[in-house]
């Protein structure tokens, strides 16, 4: 009989050390990031989210098992040995069990066993919610404050009404979304681009029309907007002699024309503006057709999250103007649009 108690005592100690040697770690990702991945259709993220929701009960179960095994080991020690020796052994086990359970070899073995059966343990917890509600002793794990994605940071900024003003939040969100935007997202569309022919004469009437547009720069075209040959700057026309002599546009315009593709990122566009020291790009598509124009101000407004309006500007959002299709592009009497 004594031998059985000794054997049971040894088995209880092994189980105790194994239970104490298991480390049930949280995922390194935040709850927000996991939910975001679940919404994006990540199958693995669904399993991680399920596990995270049950971790509190896993830790509680571990504590209960350790407590029960410690009591059982103490009882068996008293039964297997002399009562006084059993008490001494039990005290030693209580004090040193943590050290023994964390021996590298022993801990690796314990962790391997747990990892193998973790799915069954989670299923058991889900199947017995009432029991675990009664034994739940561990508080929910506290988020470590780390941010795992740009989307999470954007969410935090949007929810921080008591910390930042609306203007501050808008500016920070603009900076965060800057790298995701393309030239086509913010360019001034072709339909509202004001151009001037290279053969136009710069007299008082033409100057008056240019000022009425509210723009400070004009693409100079040769025939149509798909053939931009220069840029005309209003500030270059302030010399009264130009108007008095009725000079043609091609003699006053800047012949430097820079093109940028519509699928380029705004980061690339900003770098191009800085390297060329030019303030206006002609936006083209894959066939080198003009689809719009992009100014340095357009890019900076997106980056800063607020409009930059110079003394010539009259429209804050020319994309809205374009959507109204004021020039009635491609709208013949019997037209039909296939959607």
Summarize the structure in words.
There is one protein chain. About 55% of the residues lie in helices and about 10% in strands. The chain has helices at about 1-20, 30-40, 45-80, 85-100, 105-125, 130-135, 150-160, 165-175, 185, 205-215, 240-245, 250, 265-275, 295-305, 320-325; strands at about 190, 195, 215-220, 225-235, 260, 280-285, 290-295. It has a four-stranded mixed β-sheet. A three-stranded mixed β-sheet has the order 2-3-4. β6 and β7 (about 290-295) form a beta hairpin. The chain is rod-shaped, with a radius of gyration of 37 Å.
The number of distinct helices, counting runs of at least 4 residues, comes to: 15
Rg measurement, Å:
37 Å
**SS content category:** alpha/beta
Return the string of H and E elements: HHHHHHHHHEEHEEHHEHEEHH
Biggest β-sheet: strands ordered side by side in the sheet: 1-7-6-5
Strand content: 5-15%
Instruction: Quote the average pLDDT.
Output: 79
Number of strands: 7
Poorly predicted regions: 334-339
The largest pleated sheet is described as:
4 strands, mixed
| Bulk shape | rod-shaped
Distance, first to last CA: 87 Å
Helix percentage range: 55-70%
Helix-strand blueprint:
Layout: H1 2-21, H2 31-39, H3 43-80, H4 83-101, H5 104-127, H6 129-135, H7 150-158, H8 166-177, H9 183-186, E1 188-189, E2 196-197, H10 204-213, E3 217-222, E4 224-233, H11 240-244, H12 249-252, E5 259-261, H13 266-276, E6 280-284, E7 290-295, H14 296-304, H15 318-323
Parallel strand pairs: 2-3, 5-6
Antiparallel strand pairs: 1-7, 3-4, 6-7
Helix pairs in contact: 1-3, 1-4, 1-5, 2-3, 3-4, 3-5, 7-8
């Amino acid at each position: 009989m004594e031998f059985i108690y000794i054997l049971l005592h040894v088995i209880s100690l092994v189980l105790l050390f194994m239970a104490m040697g298991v480390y049930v770690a949280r995922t390194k990702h935040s709850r927000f990031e996991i939910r975001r991945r679940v919404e994006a259709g990540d199958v693995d993220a669904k399993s991680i989210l399920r596990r995270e929701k049950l971790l509190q009960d896993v830790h509680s179960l571990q504590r209960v098992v350790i407590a029960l095994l410690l009591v059982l080991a103490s009882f068996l020690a008293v039964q297997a040995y002399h009562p006084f020796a059993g008490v001494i052994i039990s005290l030693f086990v209580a004090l040193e069990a943590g050290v023994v359970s964390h021996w590298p070899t022993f801990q690796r073995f314990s962790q391997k066993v747990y990892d193998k059966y973790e799915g069954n343990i989670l299923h058991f917890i889900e199947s017995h919610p009432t029991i675990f509600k009664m034994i739940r002793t561990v508080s929910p794990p506290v988020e470590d404050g780390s941010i795992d994605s740009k989307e999470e940071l954007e969410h935090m900024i949007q929810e921080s009404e008591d910390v930042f003003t609306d203007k501050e939040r808008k500016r920070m969100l603009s900076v965060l979304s800057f790298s995701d935007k393309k030239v086509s997202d913010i360019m001034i569309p072709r339909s509202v681009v004001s151009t001037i022919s290279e053969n136009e004469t710069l007299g008082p009437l033409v100057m008056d029309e240019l000022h009425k547009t509210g723009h400070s720069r004009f693409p100079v075209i040769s025939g149509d907007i798909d053939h931009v040959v220069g840029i005309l700057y209003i500030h270059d026309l302030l010399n009264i002699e130009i108007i008095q002599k009725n000079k043609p546009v091609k003699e006053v315009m800047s012949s430097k024309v820079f093109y940028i593709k519509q699928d380029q990122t705004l980061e690339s566009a900003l770098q191009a503006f800085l390297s060329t020291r030019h303030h206006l790009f002609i936006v083209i598509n894959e066939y080198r057709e003009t689809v719009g124009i992009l100014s340095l101000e357009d890019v900076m407004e997106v980056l800063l999250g607020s409009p930059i309006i110079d003394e010539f500007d009259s429209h804050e959002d020319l994309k809205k103007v374009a959507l109204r299709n004021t020039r009635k592009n491609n709208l013949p009497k019997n037209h039909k649009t296939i959607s």
